[in-house]
Amino acid sequence: MTDTGHRLETLCIHAGQEPDPIHGAVMTPIVLASTFAQKSPGIYDAYDYSRAGNPTRTALEGCLAALEGAKHGITFGSGCAATTAVLLSLKSGDHVLCGDDVYGGTFRIFDKVMKPWGLEATFMDMSDLQAVKAALRPNTRLVWLETPSNPMLKITDIAAIAEIAKKAGIPLVVDNTFATPMLQRPLDLGASLVVHSTTKYLNGHSDVIGGAVLTSDDALAEKLHFLQKSVGGVPAPFDCYLVLRGLKTLGVRMKQHVASARKLVDHLVQHKQVARVFYPGLTTHKGHDVASRQMKAPGGMISFEVVGGLPAAKAFLESLKIFVCAESLGGVESLAEHPAIMTHASLPAETRRTLGIGDGLIRLSVGLEDVDDLADDLERGFSAAAPR
Ligand code: P1T
Questions:
Q1: Could you say which of 247, 263, 282 is where a domain stops?
Q2: Cis preceding linkage at 19, omega within 30
Q3: Which of the residues 57, 141, 185, 200 is marked catalytic?
C-alpha cells in the first residue's frame, strides 16, 4: 500500500492520469505542441514550452513518481541522459563512489564524459561495508549503485549503504532498472534518488529509449528540473505516451518474467554445459539473503557461463530461434547477449576479468513467450555449443 492508499498494480494503470478534461478521453492525450499560448507575456497556466514541461510528460512523471514512492519525477530522453543529468548536478573536483558492476554505458559516462570535466569516481564492490566507509573522501558527493547489477546480478544492501551515505551527508542513487518498483523500492530503503532506463521493463515493448529520475528531496528535484530544462535531454511526448501505456501492464509482466526466469534457472543449474549461473533467487548466490530482504522477487534477468568459452558462446547465440541476440532487456520478447563483446565492451578488459565478465558469459532477458519454448530454444543453443 502506498501513500495514496493504492497498491502498485493500481498505480501502474492510474497514477498521474485523469480522464482528459476537454473530451473525457480515458487515455492520456499525446500533446505534440512545442509551445503554448500565453494570455499576456509571461502569464500562462502550466506550460510555456515543451522542453520545460509538457502535459503528456507530466502524466508519465506522476506515474513513475507514484510507483517509486517519490514526490518528484523528472524524465529524460534515455537512461544515459538521466544518469548524466544526475552527475551534472555535481561540480568539477567532486568525487563519486560507484558500484563496480554497472551498465557499460554508465561506466563510459563516468570515464569518458565526466572524468575529463574533473569529476572523479571510485568503482568498488559495495558488499564490503567497511571498505565503502573507508573509500569515502572529504570531497565524495554521491554514492551510486545498481542492484541487481548489470550484468553479474550482484546484490548490494541498499539500506546499509543508505545509512553510510546519510552519515556522510551525501545522497545515494540507486539505478533500479533491473528490479523495477514492482520488485524493489530504493527510496523506502533510504536512497535519495532512483534512476531508471525506462527503455527496459517500464516501457516493456522495446520501442522507446527513455530515462527517469525519481526523488522526494525537493532541493535535488529542483536541480534536476533545472538541468532537464537547461540541458534539454527531454523525452518526446509520443515516447512518454508509449511508456505510460507500457506501464499499465508492468505488474502482470513482472510476475511472468520472474516465474519464467525461475524455471529457466532450474534448467540451467543442472545443465552439464553450464559452468555457473548468476541469479539472486539461487540460495547459492552471494547476495541471496539481502535480495530476499529487499526484493519481492529476484527478477527476470539471468547471466550464466557456457562451457567452451567464446566459440561456444558465439555458437549458442547464433543458433537461438526465439531469444534474439541483441542488447537491451526488459521487453516482452526474450533477448540474449554477450556482455564482453556487446553491452560491456566499454569496460577495460582487466576490469571485465576482475568482475567475471568472461568470454563464456551470456546474459538472458527472459521474455513472456511460453517458457517451455524458451527452454527448448536454450537447448538448441547448447546443442550448437556442444564440444565436438
Ligand atoms: O539505454 P538507455 O535507456 O540510455 O539506458 C542506459 C542504462 C542505464 N542503466 C542500466 C542498468 C541499463 O541496463 C542501461 C542500458 N542497458 C542496456 C542497453 C543493456 O543491454 O544492458
A1: 247
A2: no
A3: 200
Please give the number of the atom of ligand 1 that sits closest to the Cα of 82: 4
Out of 185, 218, 247, pick the residue that ends a domain. 247
Q: What is the pTM of this model?
A: 0.97
370: CATH: 3.90.1150.10
Q: Residue ranges of the chain with pLDDT lower than 50?
A: 1
Catalytic, 175? Answer: yes
230-249 per-position pLDDT tens digit: 999 999 999 999 999 999 99
Same domain, 135 and 213: yes
* Same domain (yes/no): 151, 210: yes
318 found inside a domain: yes
pLDDT of residue 3: 55
Asked if residue 330 has its Cβ within 6 Å of ligand 1, the reply is no
Question: Which range of residues forms the domain containing residue 72?
Answer: 8-247
pLDDT digits (tens, 9 = 90+) for 118-141: 999 999 999 999 999 999 999 999
Give the distance (Å) from ligand 1 centre to CA of residue 209.
9
- pLDDT attached to residue 388: 80
Task: Report the separation in Å between the CA atom of 336 and the middle of ligand 1, taken as the mean of its atom positions.
Answer: 14
Alpha carbon distances (Å) from 93 to 90, 224, 376:
9, 20, 53
Q: What are 306's strand-pairing partners?
A: 274
Whether 200 sits among the annotated catalytic residues: the reply is: yes
